[in-house]
Design a protein that fits this description.
GO molecular function, one term: endonuclease activity
CATH architecture: 3-Layer(aba) Sandwich
Helix content: 25-40%
Number of domains: 1
Keywords: Endonuclease, Hydrolase, Nuclease
Strand order of the largest sheet: 2-1-3
Number of strands: 3
Family: Belongs to the UPF0213 family.
Largest sheet: 3 strands, antiparallel
Oligomer: single chain
Distance between the termini: 39 Å
CATH class: Alpha Beta
Number of helices: 5
Strand content: 15-25%
Protein name: Endonuclease containing a URI domain protein
CATH topology: GIY-YIG endonuclease
Shape: globular
Radius of gyration: 18 Å
Length: 117
């Protein structure tokens, strides 16, 4: 077999670790919040900005990325998304906690999209 990518003696399967993300989109500071998870943050946020990322984001015009958390594994990102969405019975508290989380890292509620491009 031919050598590929500097490996002699044949082909070798290499597992590539992909980054994964949890993120929050909004329409304005302290506005409607959307929490998502993705393995390609730039593509997913671009979809939301064009109104094709989700029905919810399109309906509420959520175009501003205000929080992004990187995870080593998609399972970790999914678990974090579930934690951010948990406790529906405590909706008001949950919203305040999300706002505090956003403002701790992004107090001006700037759109972070340009930083990930």
């Amino acid at each position: 077999m031919p050598a590929k990518a500097g490996i002699s003696g044949g082909w070798r399967c290499v597992r590539v670790m992909r980054r994964s993300w949890t993120y929050i989109m909004t329409n304005k500071p302290r506005g409607v919040l959307y929490i998502g998870v993705t393995s390609n943050l730039a593509v997913r946020v671009d979809q939301h900005r064009r109104g094709v990322g989700s029905v919810f984001c399109s309906k509420y015009n959520l175009r501003c990325l205000v929080l992004a958390e990187e995870h080593q594994r998609i399972d970790d990102a999914i678990a974090r998304e579930k934690a951010l969405k948990a406790l529906k019975a405590l909706k008001a508290w949950k919203r305040d906690w999300k706002i505090e989380l956003i403002e701790a890292g992004n107090p001006e509620w700037r759109d972070l999209f340009e930083l990930i491009m």
